[in-house]
Amino acid sequence: MKIECVPSCVKFFVLYTGWMSTDPLGRVAGLAEPIRRALYRLVAAEPGGVSRDHAAEATRLRRSTASYHLDKLVEYGLLKTRYERLSGRQGPGAGRPAKIYERADRAIEVTVPPRDYATIAGLFAQAIEHDSTDARGALLELAHEYGRETGRNAEVSDGGYAALNALLTQRGYEPFERDRAVMLHNCPFDALATTHRALVCAMNVAILRGVIEGLDVGWEATLAPADNQCCVVMTPTGTGVADRSEAAAKPPGTS
To answer: Is 219 helix (H, G, I), strand (E, B) or coil?
Structure first.
């Protein structure tokens, strides 16, 4: 099967879903401050946005205090701003435009341990759109190209194992070393892997093989299911994984 538009489609999807985005937990931490929570709720409830004067009056804060916390929410990516002349007048004497705060368009989701169902949903949808007669085959191709684009665009400072470990950590896999292999303590697709193990594990290993290719590191990803951890094990190229095989990931009765 050949999907001609895979590179451009997947590159857009990688950037759109934010694999290289700021830690969402850190962004949500901006709401830990009660004043900021109150201001965020105020802004979110106003479709047309809120000025600093309106925010200060509604929360009974000094204008400078309201302005400070509103700008902090912008820094965290929770709010966005624009400028508007509230008087409705134009030209000389109309006064300076007011800074208007609005809720940011982008959603922020936090799960502990990390989960990433937006990625898997997007890949599933693209696979069905590209080839509804062989959605599984399309999914695995898309997953591999998605991983490769992720590796190529990774914001990591080191190469080799350090780069791979850093990216796996960023993606919430919680990597750890054992017997020359890198095991993955967490599965970002856990709920679906529980009910659709063979499909999700095949997609996961395709993503991680693509990541290795994109990073251009001498490692390989192998399916090696085990309890309480991700189904994929990473090993240096050529070493293999002792006493494990990809066949272990297949449900009984399949070849």
So the answer is: strand
Q: Which amino acid is at 124?
A: F
State if pTM tops 0.85: no
Residues 155 and 216 in one domain: yes
> Taking Cα atoms as reference points, which of 195, 177, 193 lies closest to residue 185?
177
Helix (H) or strand (E) holding 147: helix 135-152
Judge whether 1 lies within some domain. no
- Inter-helix orientation angle 135-152/6-17, to 10°: 60
| Spatial contact of 39 and 70, defined as CB atoms under 8 Å apart | yes
Tell me, what CATH number does 63's domain have?
1.10.10.10
End-of-domain residue from the set 103, 133, 152: 103
Tokens of residue 199, six digits: 């499909």
Q: Pick from 143, 151, 100: which is nearest to 123 by CA?
A: 143
Least confident of 13-17, 46-50, 146-150, 212-216: 13-17
Contact 13, 120 (CB under 8 A): no
